[in-house]
Amino acid sequence: MKMLLRVVSPLFVVAMMLSAIAAVHAQEDIVQPLVFQAAGPTPASIQSTVDAYRAFIGDPNNGNAPGPIANGRREINWDGGGSDATTDPVTPFDVFLNTRGARFTTPGTGLSQAPPSGGAQGGLAVLFNNETYGNIFATFSPVRLFTPVNSRITEGSFFVPGTSGATTATVSGFGAIFTDVDKPNGDKSGKHSTRIDYFDVDGNLIYTGLVPSSPGDRNLSFFAIAFKDARIASVRIRTGDAQPGQDDGKKDIVMMDDFIYSEPQQLP
Q1: Domain span including residue 178
Q2: Is residue 24 a part of any domain in this protein?
Q3: In this structure, what DSSP letter does residue 13 have?
Q4: Is 0.85 topped by the overall pTM?
Q5: N or C, fewer C-beta in 10 Å, the chain?
Q6: Is 189 helix (H, G, I), strand (E, B) or coil?
Q7: Segment 122-142, tens digit of pLDDT
């Protein structure tokens, strides 16, 4: 029997070693954020996690104060001081662009604020011609929810508050509350029903968060992340596996409530 000997070039060995070292360093360069998530049947089910996230990204809630501000956070609850009005869908949605440094867009008709049902315009039940919505969706902070129309995609980008969108910014953390996330196992495409994709200033995907589900109607879910530095330039939120509208009982249609994010920081 003949034995075949393979002579390996020293240069090949060195190349393989350098490749292995580069792979290790590449793994070391991947920074994982701290994740906050919870789901349950009532606001109380997720309250402690939401509060823990608020505390982690920092006090105070800076409200409508103009920036730049070094610390604290911003929150949007869509409630307009308790308003139950259903707003016409618009994109870009710039209601909070100047006051809280956030712009939201959708490839659909627009974005709307509305109670699950009721109010002068009938809320989501009338907006989407689905009277069951008053029983399916719940609010974390009454009285309105936030939703894209003719889409399930909402995209957000950040700016220094008080600059009317003239000064771009990044945040270290972003989180959102959802209602009626039913499916944890994905839609027909194999993707998780409800998720948040996070991007850096170059448009690179830096994290994908899968929003936890809870069985039954009127449930609430919360998902948020936080990095040590402000590296999030934009987010893309996918709500459910179908856009709001008529429901055959098999679709996972999801609405959004409060958005919570760290104070937007001006790019260097």
Answers
A1: 29-233+258-266
A2: no
A3: H
A4: yes
A5: N
A6: coil
A7: 999 999 999 999 999 999 999
